[in-house]
Each structure stands twice: as structure tokens, then as C-alpha cells.
Amino acid sequence: MLKKFLLCFLSNDQLDGQEIIYVAKLITQSQLTNLPKTLNNPFFHQNIEELNISYSNNPSEQQMLEFFDILTNNQFFPSLSSLQIYAYNNKLNDNNFQTIWNNLTNPQSLTKLKYLNLCLAGSKISPESQVLASLKIAQTSKFQNLEELLLSYESSRLNKQVNNRSCAVNIVQNLVNSENLKKLKHLSLNLYNNDLKAEGCQQVVEELSKPKNKLSLEEISLSFWNNGIEKNQCQELNRQFRNSLITEQLRVANIFFDAV
After folding, report:
1. Total domains present in the chain
2. Which whole-number Å values give the CA distances from 86 to 83, 209, 240, in the listed order?
3. Residue 163 region, left (φ>0) first, then alpha (ψ -120 to 50), else beta?
4. What's residue 96's pLDDT?
5. How many CA atoms lie within 13 A of 90 on its CB side?
6. What is the CATH number of the domain that holds 196?
7. Domain encompassing residue 26
8. Which pLDDT value is given to residue 260?
9. Dihedral (C-alpha) 89, 92, 96, 98: value to the nearest 10 degrees?
10. pLDDT beneath 70, residues of the chain
């Protein structure tokens, strides 16, 4: 019985976006056939434990909203423990971005997640909205069983200063102060192309390494690709960051720069 479903629509200009709706409806409405009568889960979606769907700019805003409406309907995916969605979209505005996040943090849906990997970004989404979304993650009780959280903020302008801190630092602060993410073992933040410079990256690591950090991480992954860091700085920054982050409990620190 199929328990893992992976579908990638990336780099396909022939699509009009309706395909993701078709797939979502197909998964949630299709019944399995030739099953023993003793099995109580006749619908395809009821048995899926891992779902991985990737797409980029093809869908319209309305199609994005419809897709996430289906994905987060509490009648679907009762067994889902691993969700990976790559959805970089330059059509999505702040209001619809927040609507999607309201759906994703619906306490009645996707309640068994242990692995969450999301790229929900785009040029029309403000950095402040990304900060608010991270706060929603931190405050949502259904995420208390998450063991791995991977968030991608590529080209999200997180160098913008809010309350004398970059939006990148504000996001980290929301996550490390969360009471709901205490079971988290691996945190990954992809900060590709946010013009943070060396100082901004250092501030992110400082926030992650503060002693009042409420997370119980065993592994951390940070991508600082294309952030305006000089190549001759990368090796020393990598050493500094690893020294700051690695503890008796957190044994693995994966730090990525352009030249390292």
C-alpha cells in the first residue's frame, strides 16, 4: 500500500497551475480498490505518511489558496507525519500568504506531523509577514511533536530591520523562544539571497546560541549562500559559527557559504 507520495512540477513552463489542484483532488477523492474488507481506510489519502510536492510560479494566487485549503482540510491526511512543500511564488501577496498560514496552523488538521519542510516565499511577500508566520509556527500547539523543522526563506529580504533587529533575527527569536518546539531535534534555515552580509549572519547565529534557547536541538543547518559575504571571510565565519553552536547536546552544525 502506497504510503509515500512525491511530485515535482519545478522548471516546467508548460503548466498552468491547475495541475496541483488536480493532484490534490485526486489524492483526497480517490478510493483504493481490491482491499480486504477488514481494512478501514479505503481512501488513498488516509494511508499517506509522507507527502512531498514541489512547484514554483505556475499556480495563480487562487490556485495556491485552493491547494492549501485541500491540504489542510481536517478530513484529509490523518496519518501524515512528514510534509514537504516547495512553493516559491511571485504572485502571492501578504494577505493570501497569511491565509495559507492560518490554514497550515489550523489545530484540527495535520496533527501527527514530525517532519515539516516548507518553502513558502515570493517577491510580493513582505519580510514582516515571514516573521509573523514564524510566530504562528512557534505558537501552534499541534507542532509540539515536530522533530525536524526545515524552513526556506530564499530571496525574502530578511535583512530589513524591525525593532533594531533584522527580520532574520526576529524569525530565529520566535523559534528559539517557543514552548511548543521543545521536541525539535533538527532545525534548518535556508537564508539564501537575503543580503544579510557577515554581520547579519553573525547576529542570526548569536540568537541561536543564546543560553536561554528553549529548543533541545541535536543538529542545526544554516545556509548563508549569496548574502554578500566576502569569500575570504567564509572560512573564519564557519569556524566561529560552529564553535558558537556546538554543545554537548548539539553535536552537528551544518553551515553553508558560497565558497565553503
Report:
1. 1
2. 10, 28, 31
3. left
4. 96
5. 4
6. 3.80.10.10
7. 4-256
8. 46
9. 60
10. 1, 11-15, 32-41, 57, 259-260
